[in-house]
Write a structure and sequence with these properties.
132 residues; mainly beta; four-stranded antiparallel β-sheet; three-stranded antiparallel β-sheet; 35% strand
C-alpha cells in the first residue's frame, strides 16, 4: 500500500512540476552562427512574450568583452494584438573590429504601468561568432 501511495505521489509531482526556466521566443540565429553586418534578425514571439505598441523588445550585439556594438528594436507591421505567434524584425549594423566572438542579447519589453499592467522582465543570450 505504501509503495502504491509513493508511486501516486511521484506521478503527481512529475506531472505538475514547473520549470524555473522561462519559455523564450524562437530566433532566426542559432547559437555559434557566424554573423556579419548588416544583419537582419527575426524573432517569433511564439505567443510567449507580449508586444507593446508593435514592439516586443530589443536586441544588443556585444563582443566577447561585453562591449555593445549595436542595439535594435524588434517591431512588427502585422496585427500584434492577436494571440499566438507573431514575427518581429530588426536590422542591425555593427563593426566587430577584431573580435572573434560575441553574443546577441534579447530583452523583452515588459510594458509600462504597475500591478497587472506591467509584465516581467526577461532576457536571454545567444553566443555568436564574427569569424569562422
Amino acid at each position: 500500500m505504501k509503495l502504491k501511495l509513493f508511486i501516486l505521489i511521484l506521478i503527481c509531482f512529475l506531472f505538475t512540476c514547473k520549470t524555473n526556466t522561462p519559455l523564450r521566443p524562437s530566433v532566426s540565429i542559432n547559437a555559434y552562427d557566424v554573423v556579419s553586418s548588416p544583419l537582419d534578425i527575426q524573432v517569433n514571439s511564439m505567443g510567449i512574450w507580449s508586444a507593446h505598441e508593435g514592439e516586443i523588445g530589443r536586441i544588443e550585439v556585444v563582443d566577447q568583452e561585453g562591449n555593445v556594438l549595436t542595439t535594435g528594436f524588434l517591431t512588427t507591421t502585422t496585427n500584434w494584438m492577436k494571440e499566438g505567434p507573431i514575427v518581429f524584425k530588426t536590422h542591425l549594423e555593427f563593426d566587430p573590429k577584431n573580435a572573434e566572438k560575441g553574443a546577441l542579447i534579447i530583452y523583452n519589453n515588459p510594458g509600462d504601468g504597475d500591478g497587472t499592467e506591467a509584465g516581467e522582465v526577461h532576457q536571454f543570450e545567444i553566443p555568436i561568432r564574427f569569424k569562422p
